[in-house]
Amino acid sequence: MNWSDYDAALFDLDGVITPTAVVHMRAWSAMFNDFLADLPGQRPYTDDDYYRYVDGKPRFEGVASFLESRGIDLPYGDPADDSSQRTVCGLGNRKNEAFSEVLAAEGVEAYPGSRRLVEQLAERGIKLAVVSSSRNAPTVLRAAGMIDYFPVIVDGRVAEEEQLAGKPQPDTFLDAAAKLSVPKERAVVLEDAVSGVQAGRAGAFGLVVGVDRGAGRDTLLENGADIVVTDLEELA
Hints:
It catalyses: beta-D-glucose 1-phosphate = beta-D-glucose 6-phosphate. By secondary structure, the protein is α/β, with parallel strands linked by helices.
């Protein structure tokens, strides 16, 4: 690809800039398997469930999607629900507590190739934004020493405040491009999640880059990626 054809890069965060997708996966697994242990006849939650039902989606939507796949009916509740409550929101908040504990204990560093690409794009004058379903994006970027590169961050909190539909809808990416004052045709979406590349394709962006951190090259291409890389250094 030729970066001179584009004016902005819209990065997903977890699994694209930082390896926090692994932390999220561990937190989801711990939360769901603890919950399922009390339900007779339920098989354990697996990484396959993560990629099918949770990856890239807003937290509460991920919970609802997985529960629906298992035929489990819980009240939605309220986003302010305590993590002990047996509601969609309660389970989502329980997962977020687990994620925060791991992040505080272990910290996070950006993928070296992703850091190099971000630094090079900043030097070239390409406008940069993070578009993440996570509500923890600023915290993660600060922990990784990357927040100063991104004047625009559209995360789960922003999406809720501005009533933007989450991925696979394109709304959060479109919002980021608008805040950077860049036409969508001149913006590149960089995503590792199926729901993210679907959002990039639905938004008709200039280019959708799939980053294969486990979803699979063919899967990302089938769902809307124009090209697929295994490391963002390939685009530097």
